[in-house]
Amino acid sequence: MSIKLKIPLIMLAALLLNIVILLCYFVFYLSVRVDTYQVKMQQTVSEVAQEIAAAIDGESLDLASEYLSLYKNPKKLAFVLTDTQTGEETNWNMGKAESIGFTQTSLLTLSGHSYVLLVKKQVELFNFRTHGVFQELLYFEFAVLLVIFLLLGVIIHFRYVSSLLKLNGAMHLYKDKKQVLQETDRKDEIGKLQTSFAALSRSLEAEKQVQNRIISSISHDIKTPLTSVLGYSERLLKKELSPQKQQQYTQTIYMQARDIEAIVEEFDDYLSLSAPRKEQLQKYKVSYICTMLEDEYRLRLEEQGIVFTLWNQCSDNTEIYTDLLKLRRVFANIIGNSIRHARVTGLQIQVSFISSADKLFITMSDNGNGISETDLPYIFEPFYTSDQSRRISGLGLSICKQIVEGNGGSISAENLPEGGLLIRFTLPLLPIPSRI
Fold first, then answer.
1. Which structural domain range is residue 381 located in?
2. d(Cα 123, Cα 125) in Å, to the nearest integer?
3. Contact (Cβ atoms closer than 8 angstroms) between residue 407 and residue 427
4. What share of the chain has pLDDT > 70, as a percent?
5. How far apart are CA 391 and CA 55, in angstroms?
6. 184 part of a folded domain
7. Is residue 160 part of a domain?
8. 237, 272, 307 - which closes a domain
9. Can you tell me where the transmembrane regions are (predicted)?
10. Is 161 within a domain?
11. Which of 118, 134, 243, 425 could pair covalently with 411 via S-S, beta carbons 3.0-4.6 A apart?
């Protein structure tokens, strides 16, 4: 359950707990005290009424008034004398009219007239100091709230704050020692945050390994021809060489420099490739792309003894939006990869185009030796090679993957049962996908 739901539920539970505790406290403790207070106060009022009636009954009204005025009244009782004939009232210590309380009446004779003596203990409903029950309930509520808040603080600290502090510590630990954080089974926001950070740290570690492999591969690939360039340059500078040798060394230096240039350019292409911008995309018919490939490769490959076959099974009006220069780079990299690694006599390269309702399927295959099943899942990774003793910069298929996926498609590879490698990639047909 998420924290945004847990916190209100915890607060609601605390409120209900507070109400239950107050009810229990009142029912099992305060109500007994209230009953006792009522009994004692009613008894006190009755005793005072009897005492005053016995003292002033049969006396004069003035004497009775003086007695009531001077009566020691620690309980702060109110007295009322009412003439039964005229209804005239005389009172002492009367409070607010809306107050309630305990009363006791007695019939008296004063100065030859009948009077009713009313003795009353007034209790103001909203005055907590009238008696200690409400005041005690208020103090108890403060104590309960303090305990509940402390309990809530402990729960929130150990359940949420400590988890955040641990996560923060794990982040600093990863920053200092690159120790990857483990995932958690928690389903709330903190658990999702920890899981996301764990996935991010693993991704960063994987990316770091790729970068280290890239740096190592580039360094090795450049170092080899660079060593050759330095060696032959040193010979040219320090030795008396025949014109033939000078020409040979100069040619070697030039070829090695071109190899370095090719490595740097390929690496630069790999770093600069990204999703094509809309202004780079243009509409092309598939038939036009097929004609372009025929013109570009058939004759050149036939001169090298390679059979190039192309099938277009799309309708004439099938169109795609693409960056044609980058798409040509995909075909060039895959065909070049087949020529370099097929290692068979009578190499054959086949290209086919098939369309569905919203996708263009392009397959490119050869009759070479294929790739081992162990290495097959990794051939689109940059600088991957099955021969760990050789770090040959191989970015061609990785560049193909970037271009195809940047154009909204996907690419995969598989070995053919009869031998050879098949690479299949898809491109979206019109209309243009929203992500392009």
1. 278-428
2. 6
3. yes
4. 86
5. 122
6. yes
7. no
8. 272
9. 7-32, 137-158
10. no
11. 425
Kindly state whether residues 20 and 113 are assigned to the same domain. yes
Angle at 191 between CA 185 and CA 193, to 5 degrees: 140
Residue 101 phi/psi, 5-degree rounding, is: 175, -160
Q: How far is 91 from 81, CA to CA, in rounded Å?
A: 6
CA–CA dist 146, 149 (Å, integer): 5
* More confident position, 52 or 262: 52
**Is the residue at 400 inside a domain?**
yes
**Alpha-carbon distance values, 261 to 41, 221, 264, 273, 398 (Å):** 108, 11, 5, 18, 19
| Of residues 330, 315, 300, 299, the one with CA closest to residue 409 | 330
Q: Which of 24-38, 94-108, 141-155, 191-205 has the lowest mean pLDDT?
A: 94-108
Look up the pTM and report it: 0.49
> Cα separations (Å) of 395 from 43, 158, 198, 231, 347?
104, 51, 29, 28, 23
| CATH number of the structural domain spanning residue 264 | 1.10.287.130
Angle between helices 189-238 and 3-25 (to 10 degrees): 150
SS3 state at 240: coil
